[in-house]
Amino acid sequence: MKYGFFDDASCEYVITTPETPLPWINYLGCKDFFTLVSNTCGGYSFYKDAKLLRLTRYRYNNVPYDNNGQYFYIKDGADVWNPGWQPVKRTLDSYECRHGLGYSRFTGSLNQVSAQVLSFVPLNDSCEVSRLVLTNNGSAAKELSLFSYVEWCLWNADDDMKNFQRNLSIGEMEIEGSTIYHKTEYRERRNHYALYSVNCPVDGFDTSRDAFLGAYRSPSDPAVVMNGKASNSVAHGWSPIASHQINVTLAPGESRSFIFVLAYVENKEEEKWEAPGIINKTKAHELLSRYQSDDDVEKAYAQLKEYWQELLSGYQIQSGCEEVNRMVNIWNQYQCMVTFNMSRSASYYESGIGRGMGFRDSCQDLLGFVHLIPERARERILDIASAQFGDGSTYHQYQPLTKKGNADIGGGFNDDPLWLIAGTSAYIKETGDFSILDEVVTFDDGGEGTLFEHLTRSFRFTVTHKGPHGLPLIGRADWNDCLNLNCFSAQPGESFQTFGPSEGPVAESVFIGGMFVKYGEEYAAIAESLGKKEIAEDARREVAAMYDTLLQAGWDGDWFLRAYDAYGQKVGSSECEEGQIFIEPQGFCVLAGVGVKEGKAQQALDSVKERLDSKYGIMLLQPAYTRYHLELGEITSYPPGYKENAGIFCHNNPWVSIAETVIGRGGRAFEIYKKTCPAYLEGISEIHRTEPYCYSQMIAGRDAATFGEAKNSWLTGTAAWTFVNISQYILGIQPSLDGLCINPCVPADFGDFTITRRFRGAVYHIEVKNPGHLEKGVSSLIVDGETIEGNVVPFVEGKKEYHVTAVMG
User: Fold this and answer.
1) Which domains does the chain have, with CATH numbers?
2) Which of 31, 499, 621, 719 has its CA 20 to 30 A from that of 240?
């Protein structure tokens, strides 16, 4: 069942009913100011950090779904309604929500009145602009009252929802004409405030939630709106809001527009006060002056659309498959931008309070983002590196505003250091910018070193943290946070090196071993490019030793083991009663090349298809755990089929798809790609439930009661890894240290295709022909009319355009 449709020409998803299975959301904002907005106008806004600088409140786990946002109420006689349907939920004559790239548009109509709301965050201002246009489509005049509504958060979202004994006394508001200022905590050595404004005179206002809603009422039936008259309330403590009342008379056929601006303003310390208790509004006035007319809004909106068009033009495909074109050209890249901005911090499943920016998460997000804005990727890599400790281990998370590690979570996730190599390597391959390695970055626990020194310590951390079988120690966990084989919580900066086999946690990870082979080789290649021959040779010796160890201690007979627990027992083995085979090592070891020449790689992937595959994707493990295993930890706390206990983790399905391209099976790689690709799931939205234009973290597995149901959409490494899979491995356009490699691996019937790829300041026009209907292999490569050896287009400094024809054979 569908609840809307793709409008590819407009780069929009059009939702045609407000009653979607779950709230279907969009992200407004490109850099510092962000709004999450649902298809019924729910959501919230923040500046840079969803925990520390939250502007508006949102209530998670709410009933009914999604019941706080930026709302517009229209009172037409006895009828009260919202353009986005919620929160009044009056049945509308028509409804439509168009989620686009950095904007959303809502259109509702009732009783011959239509209301259209366009909401977006401009490129260069810390605000959200919402233009509402009311139109009288009838033959008689209309007397309407328009009410706006937002509820302020008291900045720190965590404190806001817990510290009531204090927070109910600190709300401070100020009203200046049509602008309502939220200056709570401004007096507390703060230099910021928020505002909500409209570009016309108002007929009333409210800043007290109690006054606006009325006692024991909700946003679905606010007393002020139902009575048709604002109370002009000024909040003193309790729960501050911002609401404007505008009375409107519309002649038949007449339209009127109203421009609302929700903004964050930050003053320098010396600009803090105009007078005791009075905020300095100079910057606010300057900002608002830029959004006073329809022309102002149209100009800013056009700039936003042009920005996204230019950004996404860096990778565009034309093929006979509209789903691939749609996802690659628009939605997958768009989601990669969102995950880069958010990591796993703020969605409808992440409250924005606890996780901040993940070390592992942000490194992986870089993989799908680096081609979009390389300079921002460079900055992010240096931020991430500063969360590393001197021994090479890392904090697991850091706050985006302060760039400080999250001490509440700490470190000890032993895969984290290697992801820094992965992100840095991807950046250098994309840009050719080796200068980043000379940047000096501090270690969180003291001292500093170049970025290359940070990478070296990442590499050496794994070398010096091996267990009894010669495999990497897992620490608290590896990529699978719920596989807690040591039942041990590390303290910030604590090194596992201090523990010997008989005195501390010795559980080992085959998955990290696969990571070490792949990213150890990439580290060696970087060192070699820098002329550090001895370092490169030493690194390759370590990688070779790990390769052999994986084939010996890490092989179970038909697939790769997952790990050894703290007692030296196998995890992910045919010898186990439950959890006999896991997805992670099969995908990552093979994509790293382990076992390819020995034939074990194909056997492992065949075992995946036989044991883990399902119609909705590849499950994380089988058989599911039916009881709790203390020696395995949180993974067994989930019911069978959900999350890490045999759920379909979309994040690592691309690893297996990439692995299939490594051994040349393009048809199987594409089959895996399609199963978790949202554009292919649109027709079963009543089962899948999450948005059909973005990836979700997981889908309930075969053992679950709700097989096929997705959860945790938007903020997932699935976005970056799937874009890497489809763009670099299936379509085969791979950045390398030497240039752009053309190495497609597609289904035999995929057909010819063309790609436009921006790379190191040049535009590559690439045509891939497949006359023999093969799955892999390039028999000839023609660059600007000349046939060259191999399949790498050499990079020529200063050259701005390449025309490439690759013939598969």
Assistant:
1) 4-303 (2.70.98.40), 733-808 (2.60.420.10)
2) 31
